[in-house]
Design a protein that fits this description.
Elements: H1 3-11, E1 17-28, E2 31-42, E3 45-50, H2 57-65, E4 72-77, E5 80-82, H3 87-92, E6 95-98, H4 110-114, H5 131-145, H6 160-173, E7 178-182, H7 190-205, E8 209-213, H8 217-223, E9 226-231, E10 234-240, H9 246-254, E11 272-281, E12 289-294, E13 298-303, H10 309-317, E14 322-329, E15 332-334, H11 339-344, E16 347-350, H12 354-357, H13 365-370, E17 378-379, E18 382-383, H14 385-399, H15 415-427, E19 433-437, H16 445-460, E20 464-468, H17 472-478, E21 481-486, E22 489-495, H18 501-508
Helix pairs in contact: 14-15
Length: about 500
């Protein structure tokens, strides 16, 4: 018998097993999301869970956490069988989860979000919430984790990375035995990633069991003790991390060798297409940014979190208010005062926060794919169902999106497959300038390659692609030039072929 096939069962006999999931099954209409999946997590270890988008990683964890009811199998926590019906029940029994898509009360402050559902009371005789106790308890957790966030800050005023750290602190505050981190570093800077790893090592030393889901293989090999790999809803292998290489992980994940992480660049750069002059934002630190993007060029935008990368794209696309500056396309000035006007001017933008500003969660794949180009599907006053269906089918095939049908609600797809649907939406608008804010966040290595190839294909068609990314190897591997933002200003411009990560980081810190 294959040793890989008996790894989880063998581990289940160990005395230090904290969590054991056996034969977990889960079906959704038209798709078997989990098929007899097993997972064993030991106390005081970090167990990585890897697989392509749609492999079933998040679904498995949601079955553990009480978000989904499993259709079959058993879950044991410290030897006791459990079957949580709600996330509240899971939290009360020592299982916490930091979700990939943040789901926070953005109009409330940090400490309200930290203690939601368990507000500290003034006393056992007075049921009113004690603001002073809540503040003190929040600061106690933050001090322990070295998280520097004002507990009274309203969540909507914070960058995604700080909101992510608040969510991590909230999970730790439950004194959980098992903590699931689902793509925890997707919104974090390198410095914040190091901070997170210190927190994880502290939890590991306390005897916690950490389940770590990530597509970043360098992180997995560095932080993990064991790695479980899933493919198409099934368990493939469980191995000690020290026995794995990056190429071996990719082979197990995708079922084939993937020799190159980035496609070969063969786009031809032409004349200037987009010119931005002295762009200054009204409500952010972005100021006096000027640059040119050429036809057939992939122009990267680097910088630390809060450097103005996202604000630059939002101001170009008209979803943030400009105080000053001019935008020219093909030598003609365009105003781009809002998203509708920008679309008419052949601009398209993939936003950073997929859940908040990307998808229409309760609508199906077809609606999410075609909503930005509905004019092309009109037959008289009506929409042609045939044309809508044909374009959606093109998007599914072009992006290799895993979905049971066009009528599947987008919120039931994995995060990476949701991203593919949104990309297809923007490609259907036939833009001349495509603005991409973290286009591969939360996407597996195989799907990343496909998206890189799409980006380069757009460049070969003579379009300009502006791409924000927190992953410098990605910028170096895909882009032709890289603009570096720092403190809301353009700190410099480098050639992707000749620059180094050190040069980029030096420029990123210039005005920080």
């Amino acid at each position: 018998m294959d040793k890989q096939a008996i790894a989880p069962a063998a581990a289940a006999n160990d005395k230090d097993v904290l969590l054991r999931m056996e034969g977990i099954n889960k079906e959704f209409p038209g798709v078997k999301a989990l098929n007899n999946v097993s997972l064993t997590v030991r106390a005081g270890t970090v167990h990585a869970l890897m697989g392509e988008n749609g492999a079933g990683k998040s679904t498995l964890m949601k079955c553990l956490f009480g978000v989904y009811n499993k259709d079959g199998g058993h879950i044991y926590l410290e030897g006791r069988e459990v079957n949580f019906k709600t996330s509240k029940e899971a939290l009360e029994n020592g299982v916490a989860m930091v979700h990939q898509e943040l789901n926070q009360a953005l109009k409330r402050n940090v400490m309200d979000n930290m203690w939601l559902g368990r507000f500290p009371k003034i006393s056992k005789w007075c049921p009113l919430t004690s603001e002073s106790k809540m503040y003190a308890e929040t600061m106690k957790v933050f001090d322990e984790l070295e998280v520097h966030v004002d507990p009274k800050m309203v969540m909507s005023r914070m960058p995604v990375s700080q909101r992510q750290m608040v969510e991590i602190a909230k999970a730790v505050s439950y004194n959980s035995k098992v903590i699931v981190f689902d793509e925890p570093t997707s919104s974090l800077t390198e410095e914040e990633v190091e901070h997170l790893f210190r927190i994880i090592n502290m939890l590991r030393s306390r005897g916690c069991g950490i389940i770590y889901i990530s597509h970043k293989m360098e992180e997995i090999l560095r932080i993990s003790d064991e790695v479980t790999i899933m493919r198409d809803g099934q368990w493939i292998a469980t191995r000690p991390a020290k026995e794995l290489t990056m190429n071996e992980i990719i082979r197990l994940m995708v079922g084939r060798e993937l020799t190159n992480r980035y496609p070969e660049k063969d786009n031809q750069i032409g004349e200037p297409l987009l010119e931005v002059k002295n762009l200054t934002a009204a409500y952010s630190q972005l100021r006096d940014v000027s640059f040119i993007a050429k036809r057939g060029e992939v122009l990267g935008i680097a910088g630390l979190d809060g450097s103005g990368r996202t604000e630059l794209l939002e101001n170009i696309f008209g979803i943030a208010t400009r105080r000053a500056g001019e935008i020219y396309l093909n030598g003609n000035r365009v105003r781009n005062r809002n998203a509708r006007e920008s679309l008419a001017n052949k601009f398209a933008m993939l936003t950073e926060e997929r859940r908040a500003t990307g998808i229409f969660a309760i609508r199906d794949i077809q609606a999410n794919t075609t909503i930005s180009s509905l004019g092309r599907y009109k037959v008289g006053p009506f929409l042609s169902e045939k044309k809508l269906s044909e374009s959606t089918e093109w998007g599914i095939k072009a992006m290799r999106t895993k979905t049971p049908s066009q009528r599947t609600q987008i919120r039931s797809l994995s995060g990476g497959n949701q991203q593919k649907v949104i990309l297809a939406r923007w490609l259907l608008t036939e833009p001349q300038v495509l603005l991409l804010d973290e286009p591969t966040r939360g996407i597996d290595v195989g799907a990343k390659y496909e998206i890189y190839q799409l980006i380069l294909n757009l460049a070969k068609e003579g379009k300009s692609v502006l791409m924000v990314s927190s992953e410098m190897p990605e910028l170096l591997g895909v882009c032709d030039r890289i603009l570096v933002m720092s403190g809301g200003q353009l700190a410099g411009e480098v050639d992707a072929k000749t620059t180094t990560q050190e040069e980029i980081m030096t420029l990123a810190a210039k005005y920080a």
